[in-house]
Design brief:
This protein is an alpha/beta fold and about 240 residues long. The chain has a single domain, classed as Rossmann fold (3-Layer(aba) Sandwich), CATH 3.40.50. Helix 4 packs parallel to helix 6. The longest helix is centred in the middle third of the chain and has 22 residues.
Length: about 240
Protein backbone atom coordinates (compact mmCIF):
# COMPACT_ATOMS: atom_id res chain seq x y z
CA UNK A 1 0.00 0.00 0.00
CA UNK A 2 2.87 2.39 0.72
CA UNK A 3 5.63 0.94 -1.47
CA UNK A 4 8.15 3.64 -2.35
CA UNK A 5 6.65 6.20 0.05
CA UNK A 6 8.50 8.05 2.79
CA UNK A 7 6.79 8.41 6.18
CA UNK A 8 7.94 10.47 9.15
CA UNK A 9 6.29 9.40 12.41
CA UNK A 10 6.69 11.39 15.61
CA UNK A 11 6.73 9.70 19.00
CA UNK A 12 7.43 6.35 17.38
CA UNK A 13 9.52 4.60 20.01
CA UNK A 14 6.62 3.12 21.98
CA UNK A 15 2.89 2.43 22.04
CA UNK A 16 0.78 3.69 19.17
CA UNK A 17 3.72 5.33 17.39
CA UNK A 18 5.66 2.06 17.43
CA UNK A 19 2.72 0.17 15.95
CA UNK A 20 2.31 2.79 13.21
CA UNK A 21 6.00 2.65 12.29
CA UNK A 22 5.95 -1.12 11.99
CA UNK A 23 2.67 -1.28 10.04
CA UNK A 24 3.93 1.36 7.60
CA UNK A 25 7.16 -0.58 7.10
CA UNK A 26 5.18 -3.75 6.46
CA UNK A 27 3.31 -1.78 3.78
CA UNK A 28 6.59 -0.85 2.12
CA UNK A 29 7.30 2.68 3.37
CA UNK A 30 10.67 4.11 4.33
CA UNK A 31 10.05 5.11 7.95
CA UNK A 32 11.46 7.94 10.02
CA UNK A 33 11.24 7.01 13.71
CA UNK A 34 11.20 10.13 15.86
CA UNK A 35 11.82 9.88 19.59
CA UNK A 36 12.86 12.18 22.40
CA UNK A 37 14.40 10.16 25.25
CA UNK A 38 13.65 6.47 24.69
CA UNK A 39 16.60 5.67 22.42
CA UNK A 40 16.81 1.96 23.25
CA UNK A 41 13.12 1.46 22.46
CA UNK A 42 13.51 3.46 19.23
CA UNK A 43 16.44 1.29 18.17
CA UNK A 44 14.33 -1.80 18.78
CA UNK A 45 11.57 -0.37 16.58
CA UNK A 46 14.12 0.29 13.82
CA UNK A 47 15.28 -3.34 14.02
CA UNK A 48 11.71 -4.51 13.38
CA UNK A 49 11.16 -1.93 10.64
CA UNK A 50 14.23 -3.15 8.77
CA UNK A 51 12.78 -6.65 8.57
CA UNK A 52 10.22 -5.26 6.14
CA UNK A 53 11.55 -2.04 4.65
CA UNK A 54 14.07 0.57 5.75
CA UNK A 55 14.18 3.57 8.02
CA UNK A 56 16.10 5.98 10.19
CA UNK A 57 16.07 7.20 13.78
CA UNK A 58 15.41 10.92 14.21
CA UNK A 59 15.86 12.29 17.72
CA UNK A 60 14.32 15.58 18.83
CA UNK A 61 11.65 17.43 20.78
CA UNK A 62 8.74 18.14 18.43
CA UNK A 63 7.54 21.01 20.62
CA UNK A 64 10.72 23.01 19.99
CA UNK A 65 10.88 24.94 16.72
CA UNK A 66 14.60 24.30 16.21
CA UNK A 67 14.29 20.59 17.01
CA UNK A 68 11.37 20.17 14.61
CA UNK A 69 13.47 21.78 11.89
CA UNK A 70 16.34 19.38 12.62
CA UNK A 71 14.00 16.36 12.66
CA UNK A 72 12.63 17.21 9.23
CA UNK A 73 16.01 18.14 7.73
CA UNK A 74 17.63 14.92 8.94
CA UNK A 75 14.81 12.86 7.48
CA UNK A 76 14.81 14.69 4.14
CA UNK A 77 18.60 14.38 3.83
CA UNK A 78 18.06 10.62 3.70
CA UNK A 79 14.86 10.53 1.62
CA UNK A 80 14.67 13.68 -0.49
CA UNK A 81 11.05 14.33 0.48
CA UNK A 82 8.22 13.60 2.89
CA UNK A 83 5.19 11.79 1.48
CA UNK A 84 3.48 11.11 4.80
CA UNK A 85 3.63 12.82 8.19
CA UNK A 86 2.01 11.09 11.16
CA UNK A 87 2.10 13.33 14.20
CA UNK A 88 1.68 11.04 17.18
CA UNK A 89 4.02 12.48 19.81
CA UNK A 90 2.29 13.70 22.94
CA UNK A 91 2.23 13.67 26.73
CA UNK A 92 -0.50 13.17 29.32
CA UNK A 93 -0.36 14.22 32.96
CA UNK A 94 -3.28 12.76 34.90
CA UNK A 95 -4.31 15.62 37.19
CA UNK A 96 -7.41 17.58 38.00
CA UNK A 97 -7.44 21.21 36.88
CA UNK A 98 -7.18 22.38 40.50
CA UNK A 99 -3.87 20.52 40.81
CA UNK A 100 -2.28 21.91 37.65
CA UNK A 101 0.26 24.70 37.59
CA UNK A 102 1.34 26.93 34.73
CA UNK A 103 4.42 24.83 34.01
CA UNK A 104 2.39 21.66 33.42
CA UNK A 105 -0.17 23.49 31.29
CA UNK A 106 2.54 24.99 29.08
CA UNK A 107 4.41 21.68 28.80
CA UNK A 108 1.35 19.74 27.65
CA UNK A 109 0.13 22.44 25.25
CA UNK A 110 3.61 22.84 23.77
CA UNK A 111 4.22 19.13 23.26
CA UNK A 112 0.73 18.26 22.03
CA UNK A 113 -0.48 21.36 20.19
CA UNK A 114 2.36 23.74 19.36
CA UNK A 115 4.16 20.73 17.89
CA UNK A 116 1.45 20.50 15.22
CA UNK A 117 2.61 23.90 14.01
CA UNK A 118 6.34 23.24 14.32
CA UNK A 119 6.26 19.90 12.49
CA UNK A 120 3.94 21.00 9.69
CA UNK A 121 5.77 24.30 9.25
CA UNK A 122 9.00 22.48 8.48
CA UNK A 123 7.56 19.39 6.76
CA UNK A 124 5.19 20.98 4.25
CA UNK A 125 7.89 22.57 2.04
CA UNK A 126 9.17 19.03 1.44
CA UNK A 127 5.76 17.49 0.75
CA UNK A 128 4.52 17.30 -2.81
CA UNK A 129 1.07 16.94 -4.30
CA UNK A 130 -0.78 13.93 -2.95
CA UNK A 131 0.91 14.06 0.44
CA UNK A 132 -0.78 12.79 3.60
CA UNK A 133 -0.87 14.21 7.11
CA UNK A 134 -2.40 12.24 9.99
CA UNK A 135 -2.74 13.60 13.52
CA UNK A 136 -3.25 11.36 16.55
CA UNK A 137 -5.80 13.17 18.69
CA UNK A 138 -7.93 11.57 21.44
CA UNK A 139 -11.44 10.67 22.47
CA UNK A 140 -11.00 13.31 25.19
CA UNK A 141 -10.89 16.03 22.53
CA UNK A 142 -14.54 15.21 21.84
CA UNK A 143 -15.91 14.73 25.35
CA UNK A 144 -13.52 16.47 27.75
CA UNK A 145 -11.81 15.03 30.81
CA UNK A 146 -12.27 15.33 34.55
CA UNK A 147 -8.57 14.68 35.11
CA UNK A 148 -6.80 16.17 32.09
CA UNK A 149 -8.16 19.55 31.01
CA UNK A 150 -4.79 20.47 29.54
CA UNK A 151 -4.63 17.25 27.50
CA UNK A 152 -8.23 17.52 26.29
CA UNK A 153 -7.70 21.16 25.31
CA UNK A 154 -4.53 20.34 23.39
CA UNK A 155 -6.12 17.46 21.50
CA UNK A 156 -9.25 19.50 20.71
CA UNK A 157 -7.04 22.30 19.42
CA UNK A 158 -5.30 19.75 17.24
CA UNK A 159 -8.63 18.97 15.54
CA UNK A 160 -9.27 22.64 14.81
CA UNK A 161 -5.79 22.92 13.34
CA UNK A 162 -6.33 19.75 11.31
CA UNK A 163 -9.56 21.00 9.74
CA UNK A 164 -8.06 24.38 8.90
CA UNK A 165 -4.99 22.81 7.33
CA UNK A 166 -7.19 20.43 5.32
CA UNK A 167 -9.02 23.39 3.80
CA UNK A 168 -5.82 25.25 3.02
CA UNK A 169 -3.92 22.29 1.55
CA UNK A 170 -6.76 20.89 -0.56
CA UNK A 171 -5.54 22.90 -3.56
CA UNK A 172 -2.24 21.02 -3.29
CA UNK A 173 -4.11 17.69 -3.08
CA UNK A 174 -2.64 17.07 0.37
CA UNK A 175 -5.09 15.37 2.70
CA UNK A 176 -5.14 16.08 6.42
CA UNK A 177 -7.04 13.87 8.86
CA UNK A 178 -7.05 12.79 12.49
CA UNK A 179 -7.54 9.62 14.48
CA UNK A 180 -9.09 9.85 17.95
CA UNK A 181 -8.29 6.70 19.93
CA UNK A 182 -10.35 5.57 22.90
CA UNK A 183 -8.79 3.67 25.80
CA UNK A 184 -5.77 1.96 24.28
CA UNK A 185 -3.52 -0.46 26.17
CA UNK A 186 -0.35 1.66 26.30
CA UNK A 187 1.79 3.32 28.96
CA UNK A 188 -0.92 5.95 29.47
CA UNK A 189 -2.96 3.40 31.43
CA UNK A 190 -0.02 1.57 33.01
CA UNK A 191 -1.28 2.52 36.46
CA UNK A 192 -4.68 0.89 35.93
CA UNK A 193 -5.38 -2.05 38.20
CA UNK A 194 -6.76 -5.24 36.69
CA UNK A 195 -10.15 -4.34 38.14
CA UNK A 196 -10.03 -0.92 36.45
CA UNK A 197 -9.12 -2.53 33.14
CA UNK A 198 -12.00 -4.99 33.36
CA UNK A 199 -14.44 -2.27 34.36
CA UNK A 200 -13.32 -0.06 31.49
CA UNK A 201 -13.54 -2.91 28.99
CA UNK A 202 -17.07 -3.69 30.18
CA UNK A 203 -18.14 -0.14 29.24
CA UNK A 204 -17.00 -0.62 25.63
CA UNK A 205 -19.54 -2.20 23.24
CA UNK A 206 -16.87 -4.40 21.64
CA UNK A 207 -15.91 -5.61 25.10
CA UNK A 208 -12.19 -4.92 25.15
CA UNK A 209 -9.56 -2.20 25.39
CA UNK A 210 -8.02 -1.00 22.16
CA UNK A 211 -4.57 -2.04 20.99
CA UNK A 212 -1.93 0.13 19.32
CA UNK A 213 -2.42 -1.98 16.20
CA UNK A 214 -6.12 -1.03 16.08
CA UNK A 215 -5.07 2.60 15.73
CA UNK A 216 -2.17 1.86 13.37
CA UNK A 217 -4.44 0.15 10.85
CA UNK A 218 -6.65 3.24 10.59
CA UNK A 219 -3.57 5.43 10.12
CA UNK A 220 -2.36 3.11 7.38
CA UNK A 221 -5.71 3.48 5.61
CA UNK A 222 -5.62 7.29 5.86
CA UNK A 223 -2.04 7.38 4.56
CA UNK A 224 -2.82 5.11 1.61
CA UNK A 225 -4.36 5.82 -1.81
CA UNK A 226 -7.61 4.27 -0.53
CA UNK A 227 -8.22 7.50 1.41
CA UNK A 228 -7.42 9.94 -1.41
CA UNK A 229 -10.91 11.49 -1.20
CA UNK A 230 -11.00 11.87 2.58
CA UNK A 231 -9.77 15.07 4.23
CA UNK A 232 -10.61 17.13 7.29
CA UNK A 233 -12.11 14.12 9.06
CA UNK A 234 -11.68 12.61 12.52
CA UNK A 235 -12.03 8.85 12.85
CA UNK A 236 -12.80 7.64 16.37
CA UNK A 237 -11.20 4.30 17.23
CA UNK A 238 -12.91 3.44 20.52
CA UNK A 239 -14.76 0.15 20.11
CA UNK A 240 -18.12 1.88 19.81
CA UNK A 241 -17.87 3.65 23.16
CA UNK A 242 -18.89 7.03 21.79
CA UNK A 243 -21.48 6.13 19.18
CA UNK A 244 -23.52 9.25 18.55
Amino acid sequence: MLHGKTALITGASRGIGRAIAISFAEAGAYVGINYLTHQKEAEEVLEVVKKYSDGILVQGDVGLFRDAKSIVETFVENTGSIDILVHNAGIYRRKKFSEMDERQWDEVLTTNLKSCFTMCHHALPHMGEGGKIVFISSQLALRGSSHGADYAASKAGMLGFMKSLALELAERNITVNAVAPGTVDTDIIRDYTEEQRMRRAAEIPLGRLGTPEDVARVCLFLASPMADYITGETIVVAGGLYIR
